[in-house]
Amino acid sequence: MMDQSVHNKWISLVRASACRLGLVAAIAASLMVSPTLLAQGTLKGAKPKVNAKSVKAAETTKGAATGPRIKAAEPVHEFGEVWKGDNIEHTFIIENTGTELLKISKVKPSCGCTLTGAYDKEIPPGGKGKIPVRISTKKLRSKITKNVTVDSNDPNTPKFRLSIKGSIKDRFVIDPPDAGSFGRIQPGAKLERILTLTNNMEKPVKLSLAKNPTKEGAFVAELAETTPGQVYTLTIRGEGKYQEKVNRANFRVTTDMPKTPFIDVSASAYLPPRLEVNPPEIIIPKAVARERTQRVSVRFNTVEQYKVTGATIDDPAVKVSFSDDSRGRHYVSMDLPANYQPSAKGSTLKIQTDDPKNKNINVKVARRRAAAKTPRQRPAMQLSGKKAPAASFVLASDESKSIKVDDGKPTFMFFYASWCGFCKRALPQVDAIYQELKDENINIVAVNQDSLKEQGATGPRARTKKQVTDQWKDLKVSFPLVFDPDKTGRSKYLVQSFPTMFLVNKDGKVERVYVGGRAAGDGTLKKDITAILAGKSLGPQKVAAATPAPKPRKNPIMELVGKPAPAATYSLASGGTISTKDTGSVTLQMYYASWCGFCKRSLPQMSTMYNGMKDKGVKFVGISQDTLVEDGAKAKGRAKTKAFVMKQWKDLGATFPQAFDPEKAGRSKFKVSGYPTLVLLDKDGKVANAYVGAGALSDGSLKKDIEKLLAGKSK
């Protein structure tokens, strides 16, 4: 029998936890009473029997989540500050606070410099597991945030994020950064920049050039020690002998530091061609039910001042004129009538100048070519149903051994490259098939097509064999990896894109060709291999029939037209911020990237329009969408430093404010999918119109739309 005081304690406990129905039910069962009566406290005088085991179970599960639950005591690890070149290593402790087994299916780092070691894939209820992370800092700088996404069977948090934050400190600081970039230059220009290299460590460091001064291309570099072991200056000069367009040089300064054996300093200058015509060819995309203007800019990159003297076109429906602006730039304008389309053979815009070397310029005006009526067949598809070309590949695990295609049993070949994202997604899917069928009589191999440094390859996609095999291990793929040293296999099998896969039967006939990795994930590949192993023929491979051309897809940003602009705040390069909610004036936002050629060609036109409208109260802002090194991006490819982006803006002569969108929140909210994208906001903060590309800038429609808004008219 239960003592009255004990009974009263139970009643209090239940009342305090009445929202936990599972606990009420468990206690009620142990006391053999109604859960409703127990929760209401109506059994004050009752003395029921207690089931001790049930009470203990109820106490144990009190507050426990049903199912698996993932948690980390420290989801964000702040490592403070480390020297560039030193690895950052940390082990996250993962807890399962649920009642069922927690299964971790994948751990995905945010970029290639974040490596995960072996992690615990299953964690029992109440248990803990480890996820070790290592970050290489060789190509990082400034403050970084690296994320690791953990996929698990936790229904509430199927994707759990872990973060590592901190600062990377350079052993040597180069000031100013990117000072070797001279931008656009004039022919014969004498260039000079002095860079200061400062040692941040207490220990003195010795720097040197292989040859001092060192000449490379159009540049010369000279190193001098100003403070022994601590401060050096590197002077970069351009002596005037430049090639047209891009001039580059890289000067390697060697050090006596084991962790930083060298410092690379680049120099670059762009010598534009004598004459730039933009666009060099005019494509009229479609007929538009209104008049419009198509403009061509003519720029003379010479010391002498030349100009456009005339312009004609062999189409009587088009009127042509030419003009100059206040900055000495020259334009030829074509006034196109409503519903205009060039003839099938096109027409020619003829421009005359007083430049003795470019007296006559011809610009082709044509309509957009119609889309092909039949799908293009990949060359590799020609092999379907034919005898497989003889080929042998070298095993990565043993270069003395090779695998041949025609060895009397079915063969599946997966042609891939280590840099191919589609390949990396398809490889685990193929490996799952291999695990299921590896005991069957079939060869399954991956044929690597990387350009190998051991064979003299250079460039961003060149790899060493070790890099390829290390990635293979990281992907945990278990079927054989082979190399195609001379690319003879790729040539014979007509492979032009990755991944391309071939299924060859035991008689050496190509039963199926799969271009792309879809067949590996949708069950087609497994079904076909199973049929081949059963001795069946798959029959002729079908080629997709021609399909009608799809209707032009409406760009997602157009859905915002007529609606209030999404709230977004950008950081101005000059300091401060600008927000889409700053209403009261007509505003034009230009989403652009420094690597976008269309953007760079558009910026001078944007600046000209801005200079003519800024006194009317129109605001312009260029919002950079570059991936910045300061945010942890690798310093190569399209990733840029903020200093580079700001300098390019200045070099291109942009006169309106420049801003940054660090989290790409603006790009996401405004559904920007290409560059440049222009967004026109009215005085009330509504999206008046959006323009994908620079067509509206060139044909004058953007200017007309702004003028209508200034006049108080809707677009």
What does this entry look like structurally?
The protein has 14 helices and 40 strands. The protein has 715 residues and is an alpha+beta fold. The strands form eight sheets. A seven-stranded mixed beta sheet has the order 28-27-31-30-29-32-33, with helices on one face. A seven-stranded mixed beta sheet has the order 35-34-38-37-36-39-40, with helices on one face. A five-stranded mixed beta sheet has the order 2-9-8-4-6, with no helix packed on it. The radius of gyration is 34 Å and the shape is globular.
Structure in a nutshell:
Helices cover 18% and strands 34% of the residues. The protein is α+β, with helices and mostly antiparallel strands.
For this entry, give a set of tags.
14 helices; Immunoglobulin-like; 715 residues; 7-stranded mixed sheet; 6 domains; 40 strands; alpha+beta
Q: What topology does this entry show?
A:
Blueprint: H1 4-16, H2 21-31, H3 35-40, H4 52-61, E1 70-72, E2 76-83, E3 88-96, E4 102-109, E5 114-116, E6 122-123, E7 128-135, E8 142-152, E9 159-169, E10 172-175, E11 181-184, E12 191-199, E13 207-208, E14 214-216, E15 219-227, E16 231-238, E17 245-255, E18 262-271, E19 275-278, E20 281-284, E21 292-300, E22 308-313, E23 319-324, E24 330-336, E25 347-353, E26 360-367, E27 392-395, E28 402-404, E29 411-416, H5 421-437, E30 443-448, H6 465-474, E31 481-483, H7 488-492, E32 500-504, E33 510-515, H8 518-521, H9 524-533, E34 569-572, E35 577-579, E36 587-592, H10 597-613, E37 619-624, H11 642-651, E38 658-660, H12 665-669, E39 677-681, E40 687-692, H13 695-698, H14 701-710
Parallel strand pairs: 2-9, 11-18, 20-26, 29-30, 30-31, 36-37, 37-38
Antiparallel strand pairs: 1-3, 3-7, 4-6, 4-8, 5-7, 8-9, 10-12, 12-16, 13-17, 14-15, 15-16, 17-18, 19-21, 21-24, 22-25, 23-24, 25-26, 27-28, 27-31, 29-32, 32-33, 34-35, 34-38, 36-39, 39-40
